[in-house]
Amino acid sequence: xxxxxxxxxTNPPFRVxxxxxxxxxFVCEMITTRALVERNPKTMRMIRFDESERPRSIQLYGVxxxxxxxxxxxxxxxxxxxxxxxxxxxxxxxVTRRGGGxxxxxxxxxxxxxxxxxxxxxxxxxxTIKMRKGIDDDHLTYLDAGRIAVEEGVAAVALxxxxxxxxxxxxxxxxxxxxxxxxVQEIPVLGNGDxxxxxxxxxxxxxxxxxxxxxGRGCLxxxxxxxxxxxxxxxxxxxxxxxLGEVADVMERHAEGLTGCFDAEKSAISDFRKHVGWYLKxxxxxxxxxxxxxxxxxxxxxxxxxxxxDRDQPWPPNTDTPRGKSGERTKVLLPDGWxxxxxxxxxxxxxxxxxxxx
Length: 358
Hints:
Layout: E1 2-3, H1 12-19, E2 25-32, H2 33-37, H3 41-46, E3 57-61, H4 65-77, E4 83-88, H5 93-96, H6 108-121, E5 127-132, H7 142-151, E6 156-160, H8 174-183, E7 189-192, H9 198-208, E8 212-215, H10 225-233, H11 244-259, H12 265-280, H13 287-295, H14 299-306
Parallel strand pairs: 1-2, 1-8, 2-3, 3-4, 4-5, 5-6, 6-7, 7-8
Helix pairs in contact: 1-11, 4-6, 6-7, 9-10, 11-12, 11-14, 12-13, 13-14
């Protein structure tokens, strides 16, 4: 069970809340290799881990094999993490237009060079990759990428069963996970996409034969999903169904934790606002209280709003539904001429971003 890295979401407070619920791998926000080797202050703060976090997992985004290798070597030499994941799945335009994320596996030889640089510098640390099916239905890359990963010594591959063009819209193609599992027998294959409940995860494993699951948007406002997952994979039908009061307590802890990640309490509470709707989804909460919680600018203001919730209200039914980002793209932004040659390994100009977080 893996918590997918999500920009602005999978910081230490949220990872700790998820980790408390069940075992698994809990990955930090995406870190750009250039920002890491240049010791960008924001990036160095983003790779901090809570004392309770073991193993520590960092996801790297890079396009230049040399810089990726230097970043991995830095992680090993300075004991910054216990596991390295490489991002080949991010579909956002500011990443793909540089040739990174879900655009990169189209360049098979560039992908190979990046994986070789990472694995050769990783020493004892496992290197894994997370990818998508491809750029679009006419440019699928996941089977080639999976085979290259095996050949270059990658420890496991995770597939988000959508293309970059699909972004987060439509329905995940779980059959592509099964095809990847058939093609890649030597290492574990993890499935990602449309896991909104523990039962979804069990169905994915049964249908595809994958070795594990990666959960992203399904755990937004629901860190206890990882306890459900642990129960489900252990054969238990028990599921966590917190009251609104119990949810409010988790919200308060989450917000308190964020104050340790930001320079100012006001910034932390502002960052927490996006979580309010996810936590309260399905519950009956008046518009005034929702507005108060969504506009709070201090911990005391947030606590005042939480105190107005009906703590005895039971968990609402039928809430195992999509949350977070959705919708498809009309096209994927790529570097000029990116699709001309699938086998060249030139690094695009200005490919390496100095900003972490996706």
